[in-house]
């Protein structure tokens, strides 16, 4: 299986429309790949908090349209990174293929300040025909008491996507720090964990360490795609990385804009889990400590 991670540089001097066209062209250049992955919030920049509301778009907005066409033109599965989504009931309905998404209450967690609907950090995955195959609203929001944590609602739903050769488990950036999310994805059948991010340079060592840890503990491939450039004054780590189920780094990008392409065998997940069946030894529902 061939995957291409597009480590896009986000320059605040480039308009969102211009970057959207440029990234669509980069996706089309990956014809022949099986899977293409984009970073988190590449339209605005993950730390450009003041732009989230003004650049937010409905699920089936301009980024959806551009990425659906690019995926179809290239004939690839496309994880189109994430966008600042302005939620609407119609968007929730469309994302679920006709049924309101489980746990999707647009008013439950998001800032109600906007009458137009709350914001979410939402990933979109397209099939090679350009159909929307899945969406994922980021569960763990970064910022503690500011930024994304107060401007965006929290997702509630684990999401997997079945490809011909593997099952993707979806997570985004800060999610990487929460191993229980990935255990849930593995229990749901995930074999390849895909993590778009806007990870800051000052914590780059955590990025690499956590990507390898998630691969080893879940005996899964990890495809972690970051951004380059500087978001609202915050230098980005870059260093997108692909890790195999034993924790071996198969490929790693540098700091600048780059296309990181790697060939890997999805069957290695099953072989690893059979040869070293650690997941079978999990003990759940343990008694609490004695007082």
TrEMBL record:
<comment type="similarity">
    <text>Belongs to the carbon-nitrogen hydrolase superfamily. NIT1/NIT2 family.</text>
</comment>
<dbReference type="InterPro" id="IPR036526">
    <property type="entry name" value="C-N_Hydrolase_sf"/>
</dbReference>
<feature type="compositionally biased region" description="Low complexity">
    <location>
        <begin position="91"/>
        <end position="114"/>
    </location>
</feature>
<dbReference type="Pfam" id="PF00795">
    <property type="entry name" value="CN_hydrolase"/>
</dbReference>
<feature type="domain" description="CN hydrolase">
    <location>
        <begin position="1"/>
        <end position="266"/>
    </location>
</feature>
<dbReference type="InterPro" id="IPR001110">
    <property type="entry name" value="UPF0012_CS"/>
</dbReference>
<feature type="region of interest" description="Disordered">
    <location>
        <begin position="88"/>
        <end position="114"/>
    </location>
</feature>
<dbReference type="InterPro" id="IPR003010">
    <property type="entry name" value="C-N_Hydrolase"/>
</dbReference>
<protein>
    <submittedName>
        <fullName>Amidohydrolase</fullName>
    </submittedName>
</protein>
């Amino acid at each position: 299986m061939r995957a291409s991670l597009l480590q896009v540089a986000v320059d605040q001097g480039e308009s969102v429309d211009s970057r959207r066209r440029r990234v669509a062209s980069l996706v089309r250049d990956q014809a022949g790949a099986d899977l293409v992955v984009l970073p988190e919030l590449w339209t605005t920049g993950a730390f450009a908090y003041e732009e989230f509301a003004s650049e937010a778009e409905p699920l089936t907005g301009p980024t959806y349209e551009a990425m659906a066409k690019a995926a179809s033109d290239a004939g690839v599965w496309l994880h189109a990174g994430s966008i600042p989504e302005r939620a609407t009931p119609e968007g929730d309905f469309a994302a679920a293929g006709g049924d309101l998404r489980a746990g999707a209450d647009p008013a439950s967690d998001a800032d109600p300040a906007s009458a137009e609907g709350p914001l979410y950090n939402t990933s979109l995955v397209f099939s090679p025909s350009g159909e929307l195959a899945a969406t994922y609203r980021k569960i763990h929001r970064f910022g503690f008491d500011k930024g994304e944590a107060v401007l965006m609602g929290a997702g509630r739903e684990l999401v997997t996507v079945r490809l011909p050769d593997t099952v993707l488990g979806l997570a985004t950036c800060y999610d990487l720090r929460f191993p229980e999310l990935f255990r849930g994805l593995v229990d749901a059948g995930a074999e390849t964990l895909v993590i778009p991010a806007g990870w800051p340079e000052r914590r780059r060592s955590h990025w690499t360490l956590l990507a390898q840890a998630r691969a080893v503990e879940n005996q899964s491939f990890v495809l972690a795609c970051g951004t380059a450039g500087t978001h609202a004054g915050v230098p980005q780590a870059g260093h997108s990385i692909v890790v195999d189920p034993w924790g071996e780094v198969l490929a790693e990008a540098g700091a600048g804009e780059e296309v990181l392409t790697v060939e890997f065998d999805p069957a290695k997940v099953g072989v690893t889990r059979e040869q070293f069946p650690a997941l079978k030894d999990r003990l759940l529902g343990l008694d609490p400590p004695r007082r």
